[in-house]
Amino acid sequence: MTKISEYTVRQVRSSDFSRIAELTKKVYPQSEPWTQAQLASHLEVFPEGQMVVVDSKDEVVGYCASLIVDWEDYESGDSWRDFTDNGMFTNHDPVNGRTLYGAEIFIDPDLQGQGLGKMLYAARQELAQRLNLVRIRAGARLAGYGRYADRLSPEEYLKKVVSGELSDPTLSFQLRWGFKVLRLVKGYLRQDPESLGNAAVIEWLNPSVQPRPQSIV
Predict the structure, then answer these.
(1) How far is CA 211 from the centre of its chain?
(2) What are residue 167's phi and psi, to 5 degrees?
(3) C-alpha closest to that of 3 among 108, 115, 110
(4) Is 209 left (phi over 0), alpha (psi -120 to 50) or beta?
(5) Looking at 12-122, which runs of residues are DSSP E strands?
(6) pLDDT given for residue 217 in this prediction
(7) Helix, strand or coil for residue 11?
């Protein structure tokens, strides 16, 4: 269990659903929040992959959701809906999958800058290592692109963020946390007004991964 001062990372409980939906509205005011059905499905198929940061009163202040996928089943340019089965995670594949897919991660905007996001990223990396997964991949929405869309293409914006010329609210943090950009995806989150649907496929490789034992037939 990861701790910073009075904050702790733990697995999601069904009693957290309302607070997670409330926080989603706060973080993404123009998007639909996670539904009770989606959150319940996440817990049913992969409880270990669903985590929250809570304060000393057990109030949820951050959230991340993950599932395991077999990357060969997808195209790298697929959308968030493709990788999450429309947000239900019923495509979770722990038998064949070697990739932990990061479907969601956020912190209460009022508490950003206190290291809480790092707690969730560390917990997710610990999970990938414990499950002996090859990698973590995710679609990093280019949250700052909307401010530059009148003068930069998505490709130009991504290049400037990776080089450090520009800072993106989402991707720049992930780059500092050891992720590498694999490619640009257009239409990843089609209804997102900040990224205008643009995201970068990012990857973190598990440095301690071991080969899986071969089945004996």
Answers:
(1) 25
(2) -115, 125
(3) 115
(4) beta
(5) 50-54, 60-69, 99-107
(6) 44
(7) strand
Kindly list the domain boundaries of the chain, sorted by start residue.
Answer: 1-133, 139-207
**CATH for 1-133, among 3.40.50.2300, 3.40.630.30, 3.90.226.10, 3.30.390.30?**
3.40.630.30
Which candidate, 81, 25, 17, places its Cα nearest to that of 50?
17
Mean pLDDT, residues 130-134: 97
Alpha carbon distance 124, 191 (integer Å): 26
Tokens encoding 159: 């290049």
7-32 tens-digit pLDDT? 999 999 999 999 999 999 999 888 88
Say which residues have a Cβ less than 8 Å from residue 215's Cβ, sequence separation at least 6. Answer: none
